[in-house]
Amino acid sequence: MAERSTTECTSKLNAIDDALYVIGGKWKLRVIASLREGHKRFNEIQRVSVGISARVLSNELKELEMNGFVKRTVHTQTPVVVEYQLTDYADTLGDLFLALAEWGEMHRDKIRRER
Amino acid sequence: MAERSTTECTSKLNAIDDALYVIGGKWKLRVIASLREGHKRFNEIQRVSVGISARVLSNELKELEMNGFVKRTVHTQTPVVVEYQLTDYADTLGDLFLALAEWGEMHRDKIRRER
């Protein structure tokens, strides 16, 4: 890994920090990824995000809503139905998800080759 | 966000899950990013990864070493010096860091515009 100019690197590091501050952590990207197929209800998101508790999912959805990635819609028929969907702003994460998916596939192939 | 074919999406979701399993969480990418400038000692990494405790950093470095992203070198002069550097395998994260940095810069501009 070639050593980069410090100023260039510091600004890149800050930008990476900013990104990870908003979408880092164990669950955020996984919850967003689960909604990329289309809108879902709470328990549908929980089922796809294997291992997440209801309390943690509820907090993650609140933060994602506050940061403008997720829209919460309450359908007032009986029984009331609450649905979550991605906002247009979440589309800006497209390249990042692509890079994550490509790296994940590459990493999985590497692990398989090493077995 | 157009609804994608479920099989294509499931395999992408699994790949994203695999990636986040290895490099997700609050600190991994930030610790790797801090080493992209070149090798560093423990306290140098801790200083750049603002907010990380010594105990957490020590665990993260052990996991990153185990997963093949970081190499630990012990220089046996007196006093002993321990240095960490990225492996060639960590280079495969280049596109991901680029996508993260670009998104972080875009997000920061959006936040500034909204103030």
Automatic annotation (TrEMBL), chains A, B:
SUPFAM superfamilies given for it?
Winged helix' DNA-binding domain (SSF46785)
- What are the alphabetically sorted keywords of the record? DNA-binding, Transcription, Transcription regulation
Does the keyword Iron feature in the UniProt annotation?
no
- One protein family per Pfam: HxlR
Q: Which residues form the HTH hxlR-type domain?
A: 9-112
Official protein name in the record: Helix-turn-helix transcriptional regulator
Q: Which organism is it from?
A: Mucilaginibacter rigui
